């Protein structure tokens, strides 16, 4: 199934939605050979499970796979399509063997590796796995990475800061609603190229651009994600966040200032939004206002009530009253 929005296309394919007898032929012929231009062969004696979501923007495709044990090949026959894109496999992977450009790697679960669609490749997977691939334009990436040809099949360590930022940042694509405009999608594509170039070894000029653009955006995204995941932690501090992301507190403040807000304002807004969602949820109607405030990260009920009223021009009790059914 495919969906399209302006310059973003989303393709979804899953064997879970197919009758068992159709899973292998549909995966191999329809998805594999016609769409992905890959030969997909399931492991002997193992039921085939194959699910992919691919989000394609101009010059960039992000694909997330869930697969049972398979052998995937890009053969000379399939290479007749002339596609010379680059494929960057992000960690973690559980590929047991990758053969490409006369080299073999086995295994590389915690690292990333760059491959070329213009060359024969073979990937063997011995157990069910999840994999995320970033597909990029060779013409666009080549000027950013000197000696790009030497980067193929050279492992990029999983502890590389640029790779870690990239791996977190591409999570933006999991939420299509977060990429609501062509301008925003274009920025995200630029940022991904910045981070991939840094991970592979960018030129001096490209590195300078990336550090001022892609790295900054990815780091802010990572920090915001940690804040959202930890709203209920009462001691979510600027200093602690900065230390965990290996930057100074002032650097974190500057990231938020460039985004038009401050760390404190963003944290307060997100905690208030969480409390508002909980108060509006009929399933939580029996929870007290104080319990909800505490769960959203507020330690002082008076401060919560004042901030809530300033933000929403009504009290938490007003929101709760609308949630409860009339007697």
Overall 3D geometry? globular
Q: How does CATH name the architecture of the domain at 2-229?
A: Sandwich
β content, as a range? 15-25%
Spans with pLDDT under 50 lasting ≥5 residues?
Answer: none
Helix content: 40-55%
CATH topology name of the domain at 2-229: Jelly Rolls
CATH superfamily of the domain at 2-229: Jelly Rolls
Structural class comes to alpha+beta
Largest sheet: 7 strands, antiparallel
Q: Given the structure, what is the number of helices?
A: 12
Give, in order, the helices and strands.
EEHEEEEEEEEEEHHHHHHHHHHH
Rounded radius of gyration (Å) = 23 Å
Separation of the first and last Cα atoms:
46 Å
Largest beta sheet: what is the strand line-up?
Answer: 1-2-4-5-12-7-10
> Overall mean pLDDT score?
86
Q: Mind telling me the CATH class of the domain at 2-229?
A: Mainly Beta
In total, how many beta strands? 12
């Amino acid at each position: 199934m495919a969906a399209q929005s302006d310059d973003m296309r989303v393709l979804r394919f899953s064997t879970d939605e197919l009758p068992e007898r159709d899973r292998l032929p549909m995966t191999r012929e329809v998805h594999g050979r016609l769409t992905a231009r890959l030969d997909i062969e399931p492991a002997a004696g193992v039921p085939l499970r194959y699910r992919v979501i691919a989000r394609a923007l101009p010059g960039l495709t992000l694909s997330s796979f869930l697969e049972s044990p398979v052998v995937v090949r890009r053969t000379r026959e399939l290479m007749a399509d002339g596609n010379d894109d680059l494929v960057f496999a992000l960690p973690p992977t559980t590929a047991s063997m990758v053969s490409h450009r006369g080299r073999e790697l086995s295994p590389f679960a915690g690292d990333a590796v760059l491959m070329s669609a213009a060359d024969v490749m073979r990937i063997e997977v011995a157990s069910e796995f999840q994999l995320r691939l970033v597909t990029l334009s060779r013409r666009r990436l080549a000027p950013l990475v000197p000696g790009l040809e030497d980067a193929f099949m050279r492992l990029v360590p999983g502890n590389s800061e640029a790779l870690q930022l990239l791996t977190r940042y591409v999570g933006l694509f999991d939420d299509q609603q977060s990429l609501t405009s062509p301008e925003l999608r274009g920025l995200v594509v630029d940022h991904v190229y910045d981070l991939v170039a840094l991970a592979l070894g960018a030129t001096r000029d490209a590195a300078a651009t990336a550090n001022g653009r892609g790295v900054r955006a990815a780091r802010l995204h990572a920090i915001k994600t940690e804040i959202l995941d930890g709203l209920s932690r009462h001691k979510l501090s600027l200093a602690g966040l900065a230390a965990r992301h290996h930057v100074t507190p002032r650097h974190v403040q500057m990231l938020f200032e460039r985004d038009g807000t401050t760390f404190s304002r963003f944290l307060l807004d997100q905690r208030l939004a969480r409390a508002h969602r909980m108060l509006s949820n009929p399933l939580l109607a029996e929870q007290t206002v104080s319990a909800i405030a505490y769960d959203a990260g507020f330690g002082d009920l008076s401060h919560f009530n004042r901030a809530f009223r300033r933000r929403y021009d009504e009290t938490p009790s007003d929101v709760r009253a609308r949630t409860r059914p009339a007697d």
